[in-house]
Amino acid sequence: MTNNALRQSLHLHMARWGLKRFTSDADYFAWQRIELSSSDLIQLRKVVAQKHEGGHLDEVAFYDRSAQPQILPVLYSQRYEYYIEVGSRVAACLGDAAHILDFGCGVGILTTFYAAQYPEKQFLGVDRSPASIAVARERAQGLGLGNLRFECVDVELQPIAGSQDLIVATHSLVQAEQDPGIPSQNWQTFERTHDSKQQALFEQRTGLDIRLDRLSALLAQKGRMIVFEKTRQLARRVPLQRALAARGLGLVEQPELVRYRLVEEVADDGPFYLLGMEAGSTLHWDESPEPDEGPPCDPMQFKTHATDQDAPLYENHGPSAQGVWEQLHEKRLLKDTTRQESDGRQLHVELGQAEEGVYLYCANTFDQRQLVIVEPARALMLESYYRQIVEGASG
Ligand SMILES: C[S@@+](CC[C@H](N)C(=O)[O-])C[C@H]1O[C@@H](n2cnc3c(N)ncnc32)[C@H](O)[C@@H]1O
Prior knowledge:
The chain is built from 14 helices and 13 strands.
């Protein structure tokens, strides 16, 4: 089936689940007010706030609450585009696997889609939220799916039995969304040292260690895994990739970043990984920053294109700012500060002169880069900006 046909079929499947697609946030919130009573709305907001505060129990409570019949379509419609983008990609990658596990399947919106598309394959959905699993079972039965079963298991507390040809883990492996990941060696590089202690700490903090150990142990010989997490930032992508590689998983396809629209935000997630246990992959893990869409690398070229008189001569807030800063002509440093922040990151900020003008360069070990160049007559503006960053950093 082509990806387009899979997407069409997924839209129909979503309608069967009562999920709606919205192109405007205002329309979505108007619908939310019609669908939910004010007490449901209050309760929903309370659970969402608790989840953001963290903690294992709160997360299970959040997913239990999300599975309630009146809440489910309203909450999960926010993720409509996510289901279309991720579900269609996963469905296109199931290959010849006969036994497939959907880890952290939630209420089974996507698991029931995969099972309906591939009646010849056997599916198992696992989740630690009892209410989500109850809904998943009920829906699978309602959809007449005989090739799908669900188990309520917290994989951190107990292993899953059996062997699987393919494991799907979408938004279920790397918890701790706020975890910034592993910093680079220093502010001048995007590279991470191979520090096993730092890696182990990241895996523990995010729950990745036990999940991946238990899941990879389930994979049959030459088994495959599909992974899609919120690990777009290099600082999270690198330790995820190293954790996968350490469990014997290699790339089967070039990973791909996925962009989709949620209510009140556009999410850039991923990469979407198709991985295999077979040896000899010719594809390599990419540990370089994502190419940004920065302005032209030559600041002088940028100047000739600038239309706004008040605009700086050059401004770049992406990783490519580093290359431009390295190549500035006849750089003379006026002042600089490098310091360790309380969250572990190292921050460097410098003010200098170059043939191109007066510049401010700011870099940190979580891969943020910023280069601004102005005409010498506007140097005071950059100086005050420099002070703000230094004071903000120390405060
Ligand atoms: C964000 S939802 C993702 C659901 C689904 N995979 C999707 O792509 O829409 C994460 C799910 O993973 C489940 N989960 C997280 N940690 C788990 C664990 N240790 N064992 C089982 N399920 C877990 C949660 O209960 C939740 O339902």
